[in-house]
Request: fold
Amino acid sequence: MVRTTAAIVAMAACCAALPAAAQDRSSDNAVTQAEDAFGYSVGRESIGIYTASSARGFSPTSAGNVRIDGLYFDPQYTLTSIVSESSSIKVGLSAQGYPFAAPSGIVDYALRRPSNKASASIVLNGDAYGSGGLEIDGSLPVTANLSLGYGLTVNHVEFPDGTDNWNHAQGLLARWTPAPGIEILPFWTLSNDYNDEAGPFYIPAGAYLPPQPPARHFDGPGWADFRYSATNHGVLASVAPAKDWVIRLGAFRSVFDQATSYTNLLVDLQPDGTASRLVIADPRAKNVSLSGEARITHSIADGPRLHVFHASMRQRDARRVFGGSDEVDLGPTRIGTPVTAPRPAFVFGPQSHDRVRQATYGMAYDGRWKDVGELSFGVSRADYRKTTSLPGLAPVTARSRPWLYNGTLAVTAIKRLTFYAGYARGLEESGLAPPNAANRNQPLPTILTEQKDAGVRWLVTGNIKAVAGVFDLRRPYFSFDTANTYTQTGTTRSQGAEFSVAGNLTPRLGMVAGGFVLRPRITRDANAVGTIGKRPVGLPDHLFNFNLNWRTPMLEGLSLDAALFHRGTVAARIDNLVIIPSRAQLNLGGRYQFKLAGKSATFRLQAGNIFDQQGFGTAGPGIYAANSGRYLTGYLAVDV
Reply:
């Protein structure tokens, strides 16, 4: 806990008044900017053992644990980099200081703040598949207290499975500071996706992996294209009405409007590559969510001690549409055989509607004693109501008002060495039913989850920090019943250990390394049917990630980087009869920072999956998607 009182007070405001920075995309580097190996993204770069869709064996995004500058956000579509400066995954000790910690981890987006100086960045990107794109973003000061931010991206993407798409996105931001201690940040983004072909998923007839499809080859059908638009907009505001008081507000609206959607399945797939092709089409579906949080924070400095109190109100009103799909059996086929059948006249059925209204009220405390320890806890009450309307049936409403709580204790045993332990109980979402379920795309029930964790943080040197810990999470497990409905059939207990080491080994060599070892196990419900294995589908038994960034002495501005991943075995079926083998991947790259017409510029080149390791990943129980092989990507970023 080597922090000054002033720094701690600033952190207690939790991003209430972050300074604006000049637009500068040429300096994006996840290895040098990440504080740990648990998960960090900036610009076009990502690093870490966890992602927004997978942390400690579960998905923080699906669970509803997304934040913008620490305030609650319920996204129907990902917040784009046009308005997001970076994102990070918070678990264990890295989540301390976040009121109302979540069992499945937190995804926190840092909102970009327009600069008070005119600035802009241009990024040209491409890859060996034939993709190409343009990104422009910048800041424009209007007055001494008002600055605007803007961004635009246009891309054509060629995917490893041979499909492609066109997409574009645009966004606007503003930063208004009408008086000292007041900051208002409205933002708006719009994303559009066109001609996005539905890549194939493989469903073998037996307990074996699919044969490897040819790389960069799409069989079709060419008419099965996704088309969607999505918006995220809202406002962040903070007011410091008095010394040591901060009032923060976040209000957001997120919309995902999917005009066309297809699922391209090769079912009853045989080892020789023969199968039947089934294409499922969905009618237009529009999901809308209103969400946000109001929080009052009061800090009391008491010599080397700091007491921070939070009062919070979080709310969401989410409406989702699902069902009504139609399907066509295009008959026998073989992997690699083009589809020539024309688009049939799909007849869609009535759709189902789902509405969730939730309000959560809570109080939290965060106490810090310099060189002694930290104590934090929170208590909240959720008022949850979900109404589901199925065709031909009366609406069904489920209500719940659980108490939720969390607590963390950290003790500084000796200088540079801190031990911690924590517990959290939360109300979390479970995601959607997979595409091969009878209730495909249906939102699964909201569930109570709990987590226990403990560990140690060691400040090895002034700039190298190591964290190691253990965790134990429990939540319901979902699989298929006799009617092929994806429903709760048991409980998953995910026990594991994780570590992170980050910092500079030398003045020129930076390192971010981390990993986890996981032992997930299922306890089936008494009324569950069918064979359920001990391992849940889709969770690796380990993952290790090692990253280096070396600023070479030979040429100023040139740095070389390497990233090595190793993922353990993965259960692919509910009965555990198919286990996907472990997989290693090595990425090598470099970047050169230089002056282009007097402007700061960076040329970045990376070769991924050097040894061309392919194979398959899971897209759901018994569903497989082919992994990409070797690839080459690059971009040129110029700050103007």
The first strand starts at residue 40 and ends at 42. Helices lie at 5-12, 30-33.
